[in-house]
Design goal:
CATH superfamily: Response regulator
Oligomer: single chain
Order of helices and strands: EHEHEHEHEH
CATH class: Alpha Beta
Number of helices: 5
CATH architecture: 3-Layer(aba) Sandwich
Radius of gyration: 13 Å
Number of strands: 5
Strand order of the largest sheet: 2-1-3-4-5
Distance between the termini: 9 Å
Helix content: 40-55%
Shape: globular
Length: about 120
């Protein structure tokens, strides 16, 4: 079975480690982890992942700026915003900008995998 290719973008190394661990032995694989929005945009162009998990709050370039740049490259990109800041305004802004969904941190492995399955497009 072909695995869905995931790029995880978060300034927290701990979150990137958790995401990679959660996706082990699943139908998803992390093909890139970035801690910087600008670098994430460059990597997106290189690898064209199936799903992007993108932190909302990052130093330097924000998740919203990164989201806009990724969608400018590929309007059909599946980008999921992840943040501990799950305010209604933040969620609305992400979704109206073009994010496919919003996932609030922290999240349990089973819920995370079910969530990814619900948004993944069949390969």
């Amino acid at each position: 079975m072909k695995k869905s290719r995931v790029m995880a973008v978060d300034d927290s190394a701990a979150i990137l480690t958790i995401v990679a661990a959660y996706l082990e032995d699943s139908e998803f694989e992390v093909i890139a982890s970035e801690r910087d929005g600008r670098r994430a945009v460059e990597r997106f162009k290189e690898i064209n992942p199936d799903i992007v998990l993108l932190d909302l709050i990052m130093p330097g370039q924000s998740g919203m700026e990164t989201l806009s740049q990724i969608l400018a490259i590929d309007p059909d990109a599946i980008v999921v915003m992840i943040s501990s800041l799950g305010t209604e305004d933040a969620v609305h802004e992400c979704l109206s900008t073009g994010a496919r969904s919003f996932l609030q941190k922290p999240f349990a492995r089973d819920r995370f995998l079910d969530f990814l399955r619900s948004i993944a497009q069949p390969a």
